[in-house]
Recover the amino acids of this structure.
């Protein structure tokens, strides 16, 4: 579809020449002689770009520019004038004009301005599409009482500056809650910085959070801002905060109390304005009793608690979630959307979902890829749901027999060993919520070896 250009100028010759040039370049053009007509046409037609003459009978171009920007703050308007002055150009710019062109109009200048302005329009549209995609990906889906209650609490809590502690099992969607809190807050235009405290080795977590100076430790080859500094003016999400080391906890507490950070190896404190949202799947009160979490930090973080229900507590949301994931995954993978039959939905609803929403999403993806036919049947669910532990689809519970059966399908002994090792490592990483250090310790394996195997087998953490 060609771009729409509105031209408003009281000189017939200018309207004709500009219209002819733009139509020759492939644009759809409408030309009017007054600012009043320009405003009417803009409201009805919504052009991608407008050329407005400054001096016209009745309402002048600057007043029209002001009204157009009121109708659409993102409108792209180029002002043109035969009596251009610096003062007029400054006023037009202050009112939101994209550019200011003087008569007689230069064809090359017009085309360059047009190309740059429409590139700006393209970027705006692309940003809007990306924002919609991101919001769809991180949408909280559900109509159950527990989810509606949680969403109402998010809407009350989000506009406040208070810290929030999100609790819930693995895979319930704690990150979605954190992103919703950020999106509905006064900091929505600031950065949302996430730190997975369980996935970062203990010796690196402080550098990750607070930054470091060049030469402060082996491997510190340049100054680096930490996540607190990166989140300045926005939100810092400390995921799995219960896995943070005690020394890092002490430093986080100081930042929350003083509002300043000092990089490792540095001496100059930096003020930061950050809203901290934390999440954990652990019982922090029990962790405090056992000496693994600081009580003072707990009370600093737990100003407003939000509990995320497990999928077992909101089974009535499963049909909605299946539909949502089907639409989302079909668009991502370029597959034709397919519907689940009511019997198939019943099968999925009856399952216990130990891995919660994350497990359901991975199961839906697996079924969409492996099931044949225009609709997903109960037989497809029965055939495929037991295989979810074989290659990274979802799991946690059940499926042992199917996993063993699929391993026996290996053509060679080497293939069998690799498949078995991959399934075993994936299960253990999930069991410990992808805490690589903890998993390696319990497997009695050097952490570097585990990282190499994760890379070798292409293992990735799933997101709800």
């Amino acid at each position: 579809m060609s771009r729409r250009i509105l031209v408003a100028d009281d000189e017939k010759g200018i309207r004709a020449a500009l219209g002819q040039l733009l139509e020759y370049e492939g644009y759809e053009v409408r030309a009017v002689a007054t600012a009043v007509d320009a405003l009417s046409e803009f409201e009805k037609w919504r052009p991608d770009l407008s050329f407005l003459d400054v001096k016209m009978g009745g309402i002048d171009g600057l007043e029209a520019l002001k009204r157009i920007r009121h109708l659409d703050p993102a409108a792209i308007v180029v002002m043109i004038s035969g009596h251009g002055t610096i003062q007029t150009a400054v006023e037009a710019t202050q009112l939101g004009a994209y550019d200011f062109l003087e008569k007689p109009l230069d064809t090359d200048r017009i085309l360059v301005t047009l190309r740059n302005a429409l590139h700006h329009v393209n970027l705006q549209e692309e940003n809007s599409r990306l924002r919609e995609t991101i919001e769809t990906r991180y949408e909280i889906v559900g109509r159950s009482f527990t989810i509606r209650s949680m969403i109402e609490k998010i809407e009350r809590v989000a506009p406040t500056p208070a810290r929030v502690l999100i609790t819930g099992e693995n895979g319930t969607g704690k990150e979605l809650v954190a992103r919703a809190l950020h999106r509905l807050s006064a900091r929505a235009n600031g950065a949302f910085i996430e730190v997975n405290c369980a996935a970062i080795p203990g010796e690196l977590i402080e550098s990750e959070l607070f930054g470091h100076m060049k030469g402060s430790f082996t491997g510190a080859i340049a100054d680096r801002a930490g996540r607190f500094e990166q989140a300045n003016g926005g939100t810092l999400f400390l995921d799995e905060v219960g896995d943070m080391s005690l020394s890092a906890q002490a430093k986080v507490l100081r930042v929350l109390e003083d509002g300043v950070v000092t990089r490792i190896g540095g001496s100059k404190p930096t003020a930061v304005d950050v809203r901290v949202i934390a999440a954990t799947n652990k019982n922090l009160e029990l962790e405090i009793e056992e000496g693994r979490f600081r009580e003072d930090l707990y009370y600093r973080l737990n100003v407003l608690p939000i509990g995320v229900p497990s999928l077992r507590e909101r089974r009535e949301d499963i049909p909605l979630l299946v539909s949502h994931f089907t639409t989302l995954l079909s668009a991502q993978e370029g597959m034709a959307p397919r519907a689940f039959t009511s019997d198939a939905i019943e099968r999925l609803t009856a399952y216990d979902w130990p891995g919660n929403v994350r497990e359901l999403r991975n199961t839906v993806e697996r079924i969409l890829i492996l099931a044949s036919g225009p609709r997903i049947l109960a037989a497809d669910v029965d055939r495929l749901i037991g295989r979810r532990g074989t290659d990274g689809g979802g799991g946690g519970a059940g499926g042992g027999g199917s996993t063993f059966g699929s391993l026996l399908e290996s053509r060679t002994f080497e293939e069998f060993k690799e498949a078995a090792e991959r399934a075993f490592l994936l299960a253990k990483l999930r069991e410990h919520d992808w805490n690589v250090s903890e998993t390696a310790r319990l497997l009695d394996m050097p952490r570097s070896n585990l990282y190499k195997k994760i890379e070798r087998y292409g293992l990735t953490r799933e997101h709800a």
Notes: DSSP finds 20 helices and 16 strands in the chain.
